[in-house]
Amino acid sequence: TLIFKMKVLKDFKNEMFKRQEIELEVESEKNPGYEEISKKVSEESSKPEENIDVFSIKGNYGRNVCRCTFI
After folding, report:
1. In this structure, are residues 28 and 2 in contact, taking their beta carbons and an 8 Å threshold?
2. What angle do CA 1, 35, 2 make, to 5 degrees?
3. pLDDT grade, residue 2 (50/70/90)?
4. How far apart are CA 66 and CA 48, in angstroms?
5. Are 64 and 26 in contact (CB under 8 A)?
């Protein structure tokens, strides 16, 4: 896989919408796609992949680190 290291920046339980919102910092060779992030998070959290909704992936040009937000 492309993802080498994932670090949780924010883990928030949204009681209003009854969901968990998580922001990760992902270090990889290239910016991963939505499907790759969903699959990796599903493996790490033991939650079904269809229950993970990737909201955004933001990377900076020339860096191997990007931020991913999902619910």
Report:
1. yes
2. 20
3. low
4. 23
5. no
